[in-house]
């Protein structure tokens, strides 16, 4: 029996929206702080400040012993990088920043990929392709559909953009009273399979896309995941609530309105 998917009521989703807005604020502040010479630990400090100002609890700090409030993954690092004072950003780097917050016991989880100054065309492209695939996945997160509709939308989006690696060892997840809950969400696969998507579900959709192979490895720190072939990677993530009248992207300031409407999907009226 697959694990049950948690269903949230309107009040619980409203708390997740509060958490989502804290995450959005943190990612905006950390993105703005990205510059050559800034260390990844400096970004962690910015994230901590946003959490403290909001009275929110970090999702990541202490999670299976993770030592920071944010994951910072530079260039060939895909996800789960540990911020460090020794790791200074340089012009041309590409950094993924993954951040989570808890408000009243409810989680928000989101990630962005940010260019450090001027980056190569390839670096820009892999981030754009990854970001677009995330939004195509979010647009497929609709009541009455099936879980792998999301997986298929992400894969189709990446494949239509050219030759990229879609990381297979990691994926999206259910989210709510815990950061990582059932179901696991693959970033590839055929549509129309898996659990039916129901109002009250909340999912974190997070494609990881590389300029080379999809193969990844965990580094000796026990956390950082890098590509095996050294190719650079991008990672984007949003938390979405599925409501009977459409999705609500809880970690997007506009609730996802612009990107969903561009894909012909109407945002839930709850987001207004
Ligand atoms: Mg995340
Ligand atoms: Mg996540």
Describe the structure.
By secondary structure, this protein is of the alpha+beta class. Helices cover 29% and strands 24% of the residues. The protein has five helices and 15 strands. The protein has helices at residues 10-33, 40-54, 121-139, 147-161, 257-262, and strands at 57-58, 70-74, 77-79, 94-103, 106-115, 165-166, 172-174, 181-185, 202-205, 208-210, 216-218, 225-227, 233-235, 238-243, 246-249. A five-stranded antiparallel β-sheet has the order 8-7-9-14-15. Strands 1, 2, 4 and 5 form a four-stranded antiparallel β-sheet that branches. A three-stranded antiparallel β-sheet has the order 3-12-11, with no helix packed on it. A hairpin with a 2-residue loop joins strand 14 and strand 15 (246-249). The model has no long low-confidence stretch (mean pLDDT 97). The site of one magnesium ion has 5 residues, from loops.
Summarize the helices and strands and which ones pair or pack.
Layout: H1 10-33, H2 40-54, E1 57-58, E2 70-74, E3 77-79, E4 94-103, E5 106-115, H3 121-139, H4 147-161, E6 165-166, E7 172-174, E8 181-185, E9 202-205, E10 208-210, E11 216-218, E12 225-227, E13 233-235, E14 238-243, E15 246-249, H5 257-262
Helix pairs in contact: 1-2, 3-4
The chain binds magnesium ion (MG) (2 copies).
